[in-house]
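Here we describe the complex-level prediction in full. Unlike the single-chain runs in Section 2.1, the three entities below were treated as one system.
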Amino acid sequence: MQRELVEKISLTQLFILVSAFLFGSAIVVGIGGEAKQDSWIAVIVACLLSIIPVWFYTFLLSRIPEKNLFEIMEIVLGKVISKVFILLYILYFFYVSARVLRDFGELIVGDMLVNTPIEVISITFMLFVAYILYLGLEVLGRFSEIYAPYLMGSIFAIGILLLFSRELHVKNVMPILPEGIGPVIGTVFPELITFPFGELVAFMMILPYASKVRYAGKTTIFALIVSGLILAYSSFVQIATLGPEAKLRSKFPLLTATGEISLWDFIERVDLIIIFVVMFGILVKVSIFFYGGLKGLELVFNRPYRAFIYPMAMIIAFMSIIISKNFAEHISEGISMVPWIIHFPFQFGIPLLLFPFVLWKAKVLKSEGKKR
Amino acid sequence: MKAMKLLLPSLLLLGLLSGCWDTKELNDVAFVTGVAVEQGEDAKFKVTVGVANASQLNVQKSEGNTPSVTFSLEGNSISELLDKMNVGLTRELRFSHTRTLVIGEEVAREGISGFLDYLERSGQFRNNFTMLIAQNISAADILKTTFPIQKIPSLKVHNQSSTLFEQWGGAPDMKLSDFIAALTSRGRQPVAEALTIVGTPKQGQSVENNKKLEPESLITLVGLAVFKEDKLIGYLNLEETRNYVWTQDLIQTTLTVPCGEEKYIDVRILNSKSTIHANYDGETPNFQVEIVAESFLNGTQCKDNLEKIETYKKFEKDIEEMVETMILNTVTKVQEEYEVDIFGFGEVMRRQHYQRFEAVKDQWDEQFSKADIDITANIFLRRAGTSNKSFLTEDE
Amino acid sequence: MVTIAFVFILISSTLLSILLDMHLYNLSFFQTLHFSLTLDAGTRETIVFTALITGLFASFFLDYRMSKKESREKRS
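The structure predicted for the assembly as a whole is:
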């Protein structure tokens, strides 16, 4: 009765997914604010540094081809031990997607739809995500392909509109690096490298489904650099418009900056563009984390992942609310604990741990292949 | 089973309705165009809102009634009062189109950061409205003084000040966000536009005022209100305001420069740029303000021959001298009288000599008041309107 | 199976958030448990609780359907 799932995405789609994934919540919550007027430099530095882990992820995947992270774990660590790790990863993916969803909910409720319960936003959003993933990864890819031009277009348009509204003060960005590279490094580790760049670990679940796997790694790194630059550009626009203090003070700096656009008393109040951009980014981000988790469930519980979609979507909606009682808790959790306790082990710890095993197993498989 | 299959999607469709949670029909809301805050008689603040009467703005449907209604309440917090305005008004108020915030003099002298926080925090207010200080009059009267051409008072004031800024530079381009940025910055103190009413405020409060050729009362801009932190400490007049704006980002202005005894030339200044260089000379900071501008000659009362290069050179020199002394006088006045750095010289110092500024940033205003300021103007007189020689020029 | 996964993920993710909250608020485990799971009755958080219960029922239903399908396949 159910149609067969197409689980292939083209390289263009992969590129767009990676970039939308990186913009996702990073473009809303304003990253690297601690580096004051140099936060755009911090973003570039973090982006360049995170080429290393991303290259490492693709290297791991290339050792045992056409298998995703969880399948590799199963091959390398054996059925029982791998299950423990996979379950941990599932938890991680679900937890992060709940956090991302909460970011979005806070944006909508805090700024646009003040009377709407954040719970309803979470649930409707998850229903949408569930529907997309029910139709398969390819639908997500094609969906992003359609919307990506608008995303890129509006991000650039914002900078240009701000420039013409005479709100872009380059002097706000000066002085460059007055206290040396210290504060920049301080924000790169651990904040920027784990969020948003390190979260690309979720793509270890997607990369094997790219149509030309050989180029998937290169595409990801290319997308990483491009979106790193765009994030830096957006960060630059935010600082130049608002100044470092106001940027740090604002909950959603890009939104505040967009509010400054006013051209000929005609082009005004374009904040809604930002909400649209953010909605798309968050959608991709939640979907990919969710998909990663679902794939894990498929492996552990031995049922097609589509069966899990609706119940798990509801769990994520539930978690996004239960995670924190209020915005202050949400933010302080995100700054003080999540990078260290949650992000680091899953983004760098476990992959590094896997590394020697994967090398060894790859060798074994190769020699077995030769024997045959 | 079939019923179930129909029921489920229709239940899911209900989810779409959640988009209507915050819905408000246009005829349920009223747009606030201006907010005035002043000292209350019984409580901390008296807040007045000016609400647009949209039907009167339509040329065809207008019945000659008032284009804007005001209402005042007293209380201790702006936010509560704004939500409580329905004590006297019918519709839900929307603040996204607010264009002016008028602050009474007494409130400004006591400090305004208390309610600025609300305005910045609230998602409803855009940050791009004009901040105004009502000098010598009740702030609420600003929202009540009609004007025949731009019917809503608060929009009139907004247009007035932005046009003055663009045409002559007599108003600072100071939006709420700029004000807060100046407030938080260590190297700059905020300013705001000051305004008052000429005539009798009472007479202006009726549409009848619009029927007079010379309005009985009229809102006029008077210059600049100077702040120290969030407290008003004094005013600059219009001329000085223009000089202040010239050190920031002047668009264009007109100067009257003496060219002989009781004789003047009028010069239109365009395309002006000012760059500031900061330096430390031992313990005293010094600043070189460099002004480069192009200019046209609008008119002359002198007999000099405008076809000669020497005349242009002489005029250029006259203009430069005048600009230099004029701006220097304004800066010195602020240095001596108010001792606050409204020009943002501290920010320039921070940008160019970060370490030195960091060392003195807590006493920056003292540093500013002893700073040496040097103004160099470089004005190019390009052309002189559509005629060559003036008819005043006598042939030799 | 779906039900087991549902219950497992629900419990463990709640545990995760409780562990984080324990650190953040400096409370003991049971205090945090109580604190996080009371769900502020009467607030709009109940909406999401309802959604969760529909998820639970959906997983019952899915399990039932899958087991039926399996048994049918075995018979044939």
